[in-house]
Amino acid sequence: MEWKRKDLLGLEELDKEEIELILTTAESFKEVSHRYIKKVPALRGKTVVNLFYEPSTRTRVSFEVAAKRLSADVINIAAETSSVKKGETLIDTGRNVEALKADIIVIRHNSSGSAHLLARNVGISVVNGGDGWHEHPTQALLDMFTLKEKLGRLKGLRVSIVGDIAHSRVARSNIWGLTKLGAEVIICAPPMLIPPRIEAMGVRITHDIDDALRDADAINVLRMQFERDERNAFPQQIDYFRHFGISTERLKKAKKNIIVMHPGPINRGIEMSSEVADSANSVILEQVTNGIAVRMAVLYLVSHAHDKINEATD
Amino acid sequence: MQEKAKILDRETIQRTLMRMAHEILEKNKGTQALCLMGIRNRGVYLAHRLAACIKGIENAEIPVGVLDITLYRDDLTLLTPNPVVHKTEVAFDITDKNVVLVDDVLYTGRTVRAALDALMDLGRPKSIQLAVLIDRGHRELPIRPDFVGKNIPTSQNEFVELRLLESDGIDEAVIKQKKT
Known about the structure:
Strand content of chain A: 5-15%
Strand content of chain B: 25-35%
Shape of chain A: globular
Shape of chain B: globular
Helix content of chain B: 25-40%
Number of domains of chain A: 2
Helix content of chain A: 25-40%
CATH topology of the largest domain in chain A: Rossmann fold
Radius of gyration of chain B: 16 Å
Number of helices of chain B: 4
Oligomer: heterodimer
Largest sheet of chain B: 5 strands, parallel
Structural class of chain B: alpha/beta
Distance between the termini of chain A: 24 Å
Mean pLDDT of chain B: 91
Radius of gyration of chain A: 19 Å
């Protein structure tokens, strides 16, 4: 199996073998972060530009750490402090970054499809760090990596995704990836937070959190994005915890070894109680560590595929 | 690629490894601070066999590590298809150890150069030595082995292939020649 894409834009367009290749490559990269010298020269001389139009600490820092552990040079551009403020378009910004002879752009943008748009308009590699409500492929990959590491497989697992599915790119990427690798996916949320026609993605819908927890091997709890709630459509925070929050009492009714995941940042006491977040079932901090290995694998694979494509056309 | 000659068979390989094990012990005056580091893939099998020989001679276990040098290569983009990155597995600290690098065939020396960089990132060994089952010449870098199983003079259009029980179901080394 060979990786042939210059970009990683989403899990929708990947086949099962491509996803598996990223996960196995990430297994090899995990060891690097445990060394005394946490660095390999694989991307020496390459430049990675983090182009972030939305606030993000976790994802940006994780990409930055991943690139640096591969010996790449990293430049961070935050939209608030760049020419975007002066009205420069995404495509123009992308082409300027390309003219600086950067090799990879990691883009985070609030419009769905922005990573695809950029990838069509630049010759260098583009990695989607989250586009609108569409996809967040590396988050889903690190969730899947963590599950596979903890449970030894993905095929046949029952994974429940709880929370604001409608506005969640993390949910969408997880659904694409997990179903392709043979896991069963259940989504659980209040009706107004479930997007229409989501069943077509091959998931089961429930509005009952106890139903979602029953027999689940893992539960992925999404953050309630109250800052996006312009229409006041969300339930009150306290109501949300009562009906959908993961508490110790609720967890007692689930499988004893159920894995509890959260993409962060956690709203303690809203999506889950503090006890659950810090319990032995929680792998939330391991997800952060695994995110580095997964992003190293992605940067490595797209970079080499890009070099290959260029050689072939030279 | 046409098979030209068989240069090592099963018994020869085993005797050669036993001799190399003796030489490693002689040079290092025993197993104190000694460890072996196999370069993926066949170097790893050879390192384990050398460790077994050493156990037979000195009745001491020495640590064996696995080195994947893909990320350290200088010719990454020249190789097709994309080389798959495998795990480096070194469960012990190599600092102040006498590390014997083990590989199957020594040719240009570029693999060994990459392995040296990889080792230095893992710690600061007291010394690094090089053991290869076959040295076929044509070095492009100033690298020389400390322990050689067999020197086999070759031409550039020949290719030396070592097959091992662990990966290929048979123990033998052959010379192949490119069809002209």
